[in-house]
Amino acid sequence: MLRGATPAVPRRGRARARAWTGAGAAGAALVAALAGAPSAAAAGALGQGSGGSSGRGYTADVVVAYSGPAAPSGASGGGSSGSVAVQPSCWWSPMRGADASDPVAVRDFFASSREPAFFREVFGSSADWDAAVDAAAAGTPMTWYLAECQDPSRLAEFTSRSVPSPGGGVVPVVYAAWPTAQGPPPPQVDPYALALAAHDAMVIPDPEVDRNPRSSGLGATFVGLPTWFWVTDPEAVGGAAGTRTIRATVGDVWAEVTATTGGLTVSSPLGAADCDPETARTPWSPGADDDAGCTVVFTRSSAGYPGGVPLDLSTRWAATYTASDGSGGDLEGLVRTADDAVPVAESQALVSSAG
User: Fold this and answer.
1) Residue 148's beta-bridge partner residues?
2) What is this structure's pTM?
């Protein structure tokens, strides 16, 4: 059934109006328009049909192309694509009210709603219906679709077809047929939705580390001695720039997300350090100044920790985006974590006095 109240129509037209109930709110909008309602009000009801794919919260699978250093599953330099569920701004749903894959039934349904003639134009001309029937008869199965938008005022732009409204302005033609095997054009996706998809797909390595010293045998470090940590993959702290970038693209629409980290945090019950990206990337080398590295001084041995004192390693990233329409802004931050353990030994010296 149509959402909202039943539109007021002349008594002689009620039998025709009932045939519209399966077509979604597009029918209600057009009835309202013919009754003299402003075209904006009519457009406001279009695209808010009663089918399960309608309204806010609807998601569609869209093939998104990813590029950039943080793109998933790509060769060096990024580059991949995948099907992602996003909330589109506009999309095509199989029409309701008749079997969308039966062009003859669709033509009959449209023909039953030809009075007044304005309905015929909004549904597309009779030539459109006949063309779909002829294509199916020639061996090309056809399916009819209804255009829907989160913001119904965008329907005319989305469908690229409209007719004048008796109340002024235009009302979009919201029905169209395509070969069943081909399907309709892909959903229209706003840059912000692509930014969210890129944000979720961004590849940031977990902050795994190497360290020095490692004593022979247990590979332990020592109480009171600066222990130098560095990430084994520099991209875990964004490389030289401390950033990771990814771009998501659908058609001409794109959004690029940049994540920026302050560096590596090493924490444990016996010592901790916060290290900027450059410091976290710097490996230990003989003779290096401890101030140049990401060092932790453990305050006591790990005797109470079987396997070594536990380490929590983390990087935190601020995320922003820019997009093809000039929009941009902040996104939710990102966190990457890893665990490790370090045996910490205590060096003891025997002191004796000569007598």
Assistant:
1) 91
2) 0.70
Strands (DSSP E) along 68-116, which ranges? 80-86, 90-94
pLDDT in tens, 46-104: 333 323 344 455 777 788 899 999 998 754 445 677 788 888 899 999 988 889 999 99
For 6-37, letters b (16+ CB in 10 Å) and e give ebebeeeeeebbeebebbbbbbbbbbbbbeeb
Terminal CA-CA length for the chain:
107
CB 20, CB 113: distance < 8 Å = yes
Paired residues of 80 in beta bridges: 66
- For residue 120, name the pLDDT band (cuts at 50, 70, 90): low
Distance CA 63, CA 156 (A): 24
Tell me the C-alpha distance between 246 and 71, whole Å.
Answer: 5
Burial environment of residue 294 by CB neighbours within 10 A (0 to 12, 13 to 18, 19 or more): buried
Residue 41's pLDDT is 28
Q: E-strand spans in the chain? A: 60-67, 80-86, 90-94, 142-149, 162-164, 170-172, 175-179, 209-212, 221-222, 226-231, 243-250, 253-268, 271-275, 294-297, 309-323, 328-342, 344-345
**Nearest in space to 97 (alpha carbons), one of 140, 136, 49, 42:** 49
Looking at beta carbons, which pairs linking 178-184 to residues 24 or more positions away fall under 8 Å? 178/142, 178/143, 178/145, 179/135, 179/140, 179/141, 179/142, 179/143, 180/101, 180/141, 180/142, 180/143, 181/141, 183/143, 184/92, 184/145
User: Distance between CA atoms of 88 and 176, rounded to whole angstroms?
Assistant: 19
SS3 call for 313: strand
Q: What percent of the chain has pLDDT over 70?
A: 76
Which tokens hold the place of 148?
A: 């829907």
The alpha-helical segments, DSSP class H, found in 188-275 are: 191-201
Q: Tokens 């950039």 map to which residue?
A: 68
